[in-house]
């Protein structure tokens, strides 16, 4: 894998008076990151047929926990198959025939827990927020404690193309020739599946038979 392209769809103006809420008014699509990577030595026109796994794997904290095939997963699989078909590839539906490309889709979920120092993190929070809302205009305030804990969840979507035409039979390995990674808010929304796929393909013009 040699070539990496990144599109960061974040459009926000950072103002001193509201720097804690710089992305507050972004819609879900504006906070999504798309990353694609491929083997630049591969000529995709040499590949014709493909097959996509009929379910989406869910990996949580490094462990496979399930395989899902609900409306979101179906929409994602269908959108990806349509995008490849539009670029000249053939969806192989006969299970007795081995396709040239195998495609896996994976939902990656990671839970993170940590500790934060309020003094270090907020650093002057009270210098630009005035609690006038509660009837105390001009008052200052402070945190009587210094440490807090937090927990958050990171989620990403990974789509991998595997070379089934040229398997490494000696090492029992399949070569990954293309990977698409999507992360950000709204990526698991059923209404966004078509946009997710189109944005990945828009920065992968070499995916053409």
Properties at a glance:
209 residues, Double Stranded RNA Binding Domain, 9 strands, nine-stranded mixed sheet, elongated
Molecular structure report:
The chain is mostly beta strands. The chain has a domain at 3-11 and 30-112 and 153-202: Double Stranded RNA Binding Domain, CATH 3.30.160.670. It is built from three helices and nine strands; from the N terminus they run βββββαββαββα. The two termini are 20 Å apart.
Quickly describe the structure.
This protein has 209 residues and is mainly β.
Topology:
Layout: E1 3-8, E2 32-38, E3 49-52, E4 56-60, E5 63-68, H1 71-86, E6 90-91, E7 101-117, H2 118-122, E8 147-168, E9 173-184, H3 193-202
Parallel strand pairs: 3-6, 3-7, 4-7
Antiparallel strand pairs: 1-2, 2-9, 4-5, 7-8, 8-9
Helix pairs in contact: 1-3
Distance between the termini: 20 Å
Strand proportion: 35-45%
Number of helices: 3
CATH class identity of the domain at 3-11 and 30-112 and 153-202: Alpha Beta
Share of helical residues: 10-25%
pLDDT < 50 stretches: 1-27
Given the C-alpha coordinates, what overall shape results?
elongated
At the fold tier of CATH, the topology name of the domain at 3-11 and 30-112 and 153-202 is Double Stranded RNA Binding Domain
Number of strands: 9
Sheet having the most strands: 9 strands, mixed
| CATH architecture assignment of the domain at 3-11 and 30-112 and 153-202 | 2-Layer Sandwich
Q: What's the alpha carbon Rg, rounded to whole Å?
A: 23 Å
């Amino acid at each position: 894998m040699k070539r990496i392209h990144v599109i960061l769809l974040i459009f926000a103006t950072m103002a001193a008076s509201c720097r804690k809420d710089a992305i507050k008014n972004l819609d879900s699509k504006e906070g999504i990151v798309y990353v694609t990577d491929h083997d630049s030595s591969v000529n995709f026109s040499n590949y014709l047929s493909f097959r996509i796994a009929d379910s989406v794997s869910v990996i949580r904290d490094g462990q496979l926990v399930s395989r899902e095939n609900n409306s979101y997963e179906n929409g994602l699989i269908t959108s990806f198959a349509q995008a490849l078909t539009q670029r000249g590839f053939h969806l192989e539906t006969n299970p007795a025939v081995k396709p040239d490309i195998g495609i896996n889709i994976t939902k990656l979920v990671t839970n993170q827990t940590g500790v934060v120092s309020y003094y270090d993190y907020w650093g002057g929070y009270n210098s630009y927020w005035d609690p006038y809302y509660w009837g105390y205009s001009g008052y200052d305030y402070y945190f009587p404690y210094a440490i807090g804990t937090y927990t958050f969840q990171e989620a990403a979507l990974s789509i991998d193309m595997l070379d089934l035409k040229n398997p490494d039979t000696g090492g029992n390995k399949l070569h990954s020739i293309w990977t698409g990674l999507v992360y950000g808010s709204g990526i698991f929304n059923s209404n966004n599946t078509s946009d997710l796929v189109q944005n990945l393909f828009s920065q992968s013009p070499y995916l053409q038979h």
